[in-house]
Amino acid sequence: MDARLNFSTGPDAPKAFKYMMSAGQALKDMPVPATTQELVALRVSQINGCAVCIDMHTKEAAAAGETSVRLNLVAAWREATVFTEAERAALELAEEGTRIADAAGGVSDEVWAYAAKHYDEEQLTALVVLISFMNLANRVNVITRQPAGNYEAGQFH
């Protein structure tokens, strides 16, 4: 499959893509564990069907030491016993924050309270920004049909 757009060509695309990637990189420094960030990014990408982001975040998580069992169970995290309560809260927040149209009212008070039980305000801010950023990245990549499979861990660092 060929991408509809190449973000490394043209007068404006490389600059916009550079800023977007810089924002993504800045998120990695936020006060949420790296493994939780990768699990959230992966789950949002699964929901949105973003193959290139699934490829990226699966490989980044594995490079950071995440196990294949946990990575394979992210899509079914509710039924899996391998995630901590904090990770489950982050994954639930990611799902409701991504499926806003499906949830009619957005993120429910119950899901927010569950997340707030495990994360402080700074960490909640980081999760909200990460979820929002991943939805942006997923949409850019899905709309332009960016191909998956060739990502190498650390490629954008």
From TrEMBL:
GO molecular function: peroxiredoxin activity
Pfam families membership: CMD
Carboxymuconolactone decarboxylase-like domain ranges (all copies): 14-96
SUPFAM superfamilies: AhpD-like (SSF69118)
Gene3D superfamilies registered for this protein in UniProt: AhpD-like
InterPro entries, A to Z: AhpD-like, AhpD_core, CMD-like
Protein's UniProt name: Carboxymuconolactone decarboxylase family protein
